[in-house]
Design a protein that fits this description.
Elements: E1 2-11, E2 22-37, E3 42-46, E4 51-54, H1 62-74, E5 81-87, H2 97-112, H3 119-134, H4 140-147, E6 150-154, E7 163-167, E8 173-179, H5 186-199, H6 201-224, H7 227-243, H8 249-260, E9 265-269, E10 276-281, H9 284-296, E11 300-306
Parallel strand pairs: 3-5
Antiparallel strand pairs: 1-2, 2-5, 2-6, 3-4, 6-7, 8-10, 8-11, 9-10
The structure holds (3R)-3-hydroxy-3-methyl-5-(phosphonooxy)pentanoic acid.
Length: about 300
């Protein structure tokens, strides 16, 4: 049984698609994959999305297409097996469930067939398979899922290796994740931003400049363990995301409720327009309070920590 972990983008979603830096971390929510023998062919059952595929029977099916890529890249075409997938990560919620799914599959195949893939190779294959789910992904999701760490990420727009640096926070970040339970479509949201950027280039150039500067400041604050500054920058990042039009009334409501209940900062995470947000808390007591405030509004919340 092998695991793939979900992720939280702390800073820079959407902007990373255009080569700007982002900071992300894996989280404790996961998908896990177990391989069983099968007489003929390949079957995959994904309990998280309730998808059941027999490989090749429906070539339009996303999971089928992702599996084809994984088999090609691992050289395992022609093998017979059955994969059972489950986990506790909400799907289509901005927590990187598709990347986690792919990473858990690649790791399970790696383990079972003794492929000796390095993290870098797992990540490269996962990135290729992520294209099926996300069209033009930055690669930040699969990278956070593969390396299971806090990291700095810059997409290489010329197609070469992306820049990945593992980071350490001076202090662990106590966060609460709030889930609006509104399913979002990453491909659509990324395409909307592109359209708006083309329509209003001047406005977007300025926002992108601010976003870039902000991520460098955030790295500094995280590495110094300056939580109040980190919180301030999280709020500023949320404002930039509002300006590019990817927040939603529910996300704004949960961010506001978090800050009113003592969070140092709160922002959406992932593609936005639904999905999840997170709040940075100064201590465990505030974490409980914020999680409760989110639940009181009728949404799900998860308490976790990142960056250690
Ligand atoms: O919502 P998710 O988990 O699909 O995250 C998308 C993050 C984006 O920056 C919006 C897109 C990307 O590929 O980085």
């Amino acid at each position: 049984m092998q695991y793939g972990y979900g992720k939280l983008i702390l800073f820079g979603e959407h902007f990373v698609v255009y080569g700007l830096p982002g900071i992300a971390s894996s989280i404790g929510l996961y998908t896990r994959c177990q391989l069983y023998p099968n007489k003929t062919g390949i079957k995959v059952r994904d309990r998280l999305t309730n998808k059941n595929i027999v490989l090749g029977e429906n070539k339009q099916e996303i999971l089928d297409r992702a599996m084809q890529i994984i088999l090609k890249e691992t050289g395992l075409g022609g093998k017979n097996f059955r994969l059972e997938i489950d986990g506790d990560i909400p799907v289509f919620g901005g927590l990187g469930s598709s990347a986690a799914l792919i990473v858990s599959i690649i790791r399970e195949l790696n383990e079972h067939y003794k492929l000796k893939l390095s993290n870098e190779q797992v990540n490269e294959i996962a990135f290729k398979a992520e294209h099926v789910f996300h069209g033009n992904p930055s690669g930040i999701d699969n990278t956070a899922s593969t390396y299971r760490s806090l990291l700095w990420f810059e997409k290489n727009l010329s197609g070469g290796k992306n820049k990945i640096e593992l980071l350490k926070c001076k202090k662990p970040l106590l966060v609460v994740i709030g889930n609006t339970k509104i399913i979002h479509d990453t491909v659509e949201t990324v395409a909307e931003v592109k359209k708006k950027k083309e329509k209003e280039p001047k406005k977007f150039d300025k926002i992108f400049e601010d976003a870039k500067e902000l991520v460098f400041q955030a790295r500094n604050a995280l590495e110094k363990g300056d939580l109040p500054k980190t919180g301030e920058l999280i709020n500023e990042n949320q404002e930039l995301l509002q300006e590019i039009g990817v927040s939603s009334p529910e996300l704004d409501l949960l961010c506001k409720a978090s800050v009113e209940n003592g969070a140092l900062g709160a922002k959406l995470t992932g593609a936005g327009m639904g999905g999840c947000m997170f709040a940075l808390c100064p201590d465990k007591k505030t974490q409980e309070k914020v999680a409760q405030a989110i639940r009181k509004k009728g949404f799900d919340s998860y308490i976790t920590s990142v960056g250690v």
